[in-house]
Automatic annotation (TrEMBL):
Source organism (scientific name): Bifidobacterium minimum
Predominant cellular place of this UniProt entry's protein: membrane
Protein name, per record: Protein-export membrane protein SecG
Function: Involved in protein export. Participates in an early event of protein translocation.
Pfam family, one: SecG
């Protein structure tokens, strides 16, 4: 197995993990009303009184994971386009 094939496999594994994590982070966001977060307990976060700091940190992590996800998609696309594997 070549080094490029190992890199591609690692990127694919990280992509799956980032996809699952990104989905969970998006679902954790405070709902604006009637969305999935309200369906799965969005009312509990309102009663718990989530702070602005927690929401900011959740937003930051969501953006960071989303940027990593996009970078991996681009890298895998370029690897496929130039037949590196």
């Amino acid at each position: 197995m070549s080094a490029i094939a190992v890199v591609k496999l690692v990127l694919q594994i990280v992509l799956v993990l980032a996809s699952v994590l990104l989905t969970l982070l998006i679902l954790m966001h405070k709902g604006k009303g009637g969305g999935l977060s309200d369906m799965f307990g969005g009312g509990l976060t309102q009663n718990a009184g989530t702070s602005g700091v927690a929401e900011k940190n959740l937003n930051r992590w969501t953006v960071i994971i989303a940027l990593i996800w996009v970078a991996i998609i681009i890298a895998l696309g370029l690897m496929t386009k130039f037949n590196l594997v």
